[in-house]
Amino acid sequence: NTVVYLDPNSGDDTNDGSSVENAVRTLVKAIKIANGGIIYLLNPIDINENLTLENVTLRPGRSNMSRMLYIRGDVTLQNIIINNTTPDDKPCQFSVNPIEVAGTLIIKDGTEIGPFPGKSCIYALPHSTVNLNGGEILGDKQNTVEYGGGIYAEHATVNVNGGTISGHSATYGGGIFSSYSNIKINGGTISDNQSIRGSGIYAINDSNVSLKGGSIIHNKSGQGAGVYLSISKLFINGESCQITQNTVTTEPSPKDMRGEGGGIYLIYSEAEIESGTINKNTAIAAAPDENGNIQ
């Protein structure tokens, strides 16, 4: 595959992009040269336009960066890989999060984002929208971020219509962390994440979580392995929605891992459940539901 170096700060589009010293300046030029290959970013890209990125791989070109992408326009990702492998095959250390969204991000089939050890893959800033229509947002199941391994949403909107969020490890919200945000799950899968609280979805501070489809499955935490809500609202109304086979545990720390609410854990929150499947979830601590589905 062709390898291209891109530096939006000091690159020059008259260069061929073949090395750090010969980096190009614009994303359009880099994509044209890469022709489906790999683009190494030497500085973050600020995208303030409507743009579709496809058929390319984006990687950090340095061992230390603030972020990779700052999205202010409407950006669609399709058949694109964005991961944390530098030219010397070592992970980059990011000072913030690798992908920050202030506009609209649409993720389509064939897209693979992550893993980004110790960081949220996508940080949805206030008034932004993230639409996961396909593709994968992946973690490495080992390195823990404090909030939101897959997506961190702050005063934002996240629509999951397809795709997968899996393999993330966080203190709060392995798959999705929500604060003052609207989370709408219409399809897709949130699976195999782990956390102390809310491995699938962790929602606080007047968040609204709507589940009309999709699967929240095989997540593991100390409280609310599927969905954890605090001072928030949960709406479940969709026959295809499944919260199943999630597990809470008291290991390794009973102080933090309380073993409550395998499927759903609510505290100071409201839930309206009209249809859907909530079953085969397990809890250790005593709970109103003998199967540990809801507490």
Describe the structure.
This protein is an all-beta fold and 295 residues long. The protein has one helix spanning 27-34; strands at residues 3-6, 38-41, 45-47, 51-60, 64-65, 69-71, 74-82, 93-94, 99-101, 104-107, 112-113, 122-124, 129-132, 136-138, 144-147, 151-154, 157-160, 164-166, 169-172, 176-179, 182-185, 189-191, 194-197, 201-204, 208-211, 215-217, 220-223, 227-230, 233-244, 247-248, 264-267, 270-279.
Biggest sheet overview: 12 strands, parallel, barrel
**Helical fraction:** under 10%
Q: How does the overall form come out from the CA principal axes?
A: elongated
Average pLDDT, all residues: 93
Q: Could you give a short description of this structure?
A:
The chain has 295 residues and is mostly beta strands.
Structural descriptors:
single chain, 295 residues, mainly beta, 12-stranded parallel beta barrel, 9-stranded parallel beta sheet
In terms of topology, how is this protein built?
Elements: E1 3-6, H1 27-34, E2 38-41, E3 45-47, E4 51-60, E5 64-65, E6 69-71, E7 74-82, E8 93-94, E9 99-101, E10 104-107, E11 112-113, E12 122-124, E13 129-132, E14 136-138, E15 144-147, E16 151-154, E17 157-160, E18 164-166, E19 169-172, E20 176-179, E21 182-185, E22 189-191, E23 194-197, E24 201-204, E25 208-211, E26 215-217, E27 220-223, E28 227-230, E29 233-244, E30 247-248, E31 264-267, E32 270-279
Parallel strand pairs: 1-2, 2-4, 3-6, 4-7, 5-8, 6-9, 7-10, 7-11, 9-12, 10-13, 11-14, 12-16, 13-17, 14-18, 15-19, 16-20, 17-21, 18-22, 19-23, 20-24, 21-25, 22-26, 23-27, 24-28, 25-29, 26-29, 27-30, 28-31, 29-32
